[in-house]
Amino acid sequence: MSSASSSISEPSTAQQSYPDGRVALAEAAVLDDPRFSNADLAPVAIERRNWTTYNYLALWVGMAHCIPSWTLASGLVALGMDWKQAVLTIALANVIVLIPMLLTGHAGTKYGIPFPVFARASFGLRGANLPAMVRAAVACAWFGIQTWIGGEGIFLLAGKLFGDSWLNASKIQGTAWTQWLAFLVFWLIEVLVITRGMETLRKFENWAAPLVIAGALALLGFMASKAGGFGPLLDQPSALGWGSGFWKVFFPALMGMIGFWATLSLNIPDFTRFGGSQRAQLRGQALGLPTTMTLFAVLSVLVTSGSQAVYGEPIWDPIALTAKMSNVVGALFALFIVMVATLSVNIAANVVSPAYDLSNLLPRFISFRTGALITGVVGIVIMPWKLIANPHVYIFTWLGVVGGLLGTVAGILIADYWFIRRTELHLDELYKPGGRYWYTGGWNLRAVLSFAVGGLLAIGGSYSALDAQGVKQGPFPVHGMVPFLKPLADYGWAVGLASSFLLYAALSLTARRPRR
Which pLDDT does position 5 carry in this prediction? Predict the structure, then answer.
């Protein structure tokens, strides 16, 4: 290894520490290598780090109150859980994922750096592109999923206005061409908003997020009135019970719920880099994430339970459920809320992260805005309509595999930042080749090996279950891709995080201790 494996050095004169623990570049420091720096990747100046507890609380209210959050909870009901089991699963998952969220968010507030720059400390200046591209791919897929949902809202809203000729138009690839058109229209709206910049997005999110709560409460009232009160919503029994049938579904579902926010547990420095203090981001996130997601889960599972009582089957898609409303004005209002909320959440949660990641790949050529536009294109190419079509694929295959990989990255980041470096980084050297974070040609081979081993353990045993008719529910072999790893597959996120943490820490400690 290079100088990165040398002994601990004195504090750098290229950075300035403040009494509250935050660190910024010294005035004399210059980041002049366009291969590793641009205006979007550079540390946020201390005077621009002004987010408060409320800002982070509002951020989570805006991001959590989205349709995929709804389909997570309602999808558990569709898989056989009752409302208590579904809420328990989601509440526990969000308390668990909050821990790495706060641990990685610390670096953003302390140093003012986004996730891909933070990852350079453990993976190397070039190696950081490995976890950044994994995370960017996940965010692009989420962008596509949300865009498909928003397009579905436009499709059904227009159907209320134009009637059956719109809803039953000729099909392309099994879907009405008018729905493809609605998907494209919603995508174009998002692109137009993106090009107006992040400040426009932030203002839009501030007023849009509460609309989703209003819409969810209205839908709950609608279902309660149709079911004849709240009793039928609360009385729907679990198809799984509390025995072995439940636990077989619970653990992979728990990992899927964790996988839902696993990407944010990595890229939360993209937001905490603007934090006015560590206390602001800690309190804001702790108050915002678990409480908001649990409240939304309660609303969604009650409504889905109600749909089972009213229609004889659980309707886990809130847009499809809204379309059943006989009151045209009410349905139009509900669908409008779906579109506005989806637009605000999608751009905040799924454009910021890949935009920074793609900018980190080629800082000289890709700005934050260019990265955001690339995200929009990839979000179509990835065919999101297939990811969300089946709750088995959505929760177990997609979220489970994604969660396993992202847990592996989180384990390495936390081990390096907290256990090896004790939260001490050198800002200027995160942007300069040849320094302590250059390792071997820009790659930290210890991190790469830990990622490969942790990823294999986390997702190598991925398998697809059989339904009651013996039909395989997913793309993986029934006995797992690597059969002897199948017992680990249901715990992918936890396995990935723990194994990569331990392996990276062991490899780093057996080598000479890195300079902090």
Answer: 41
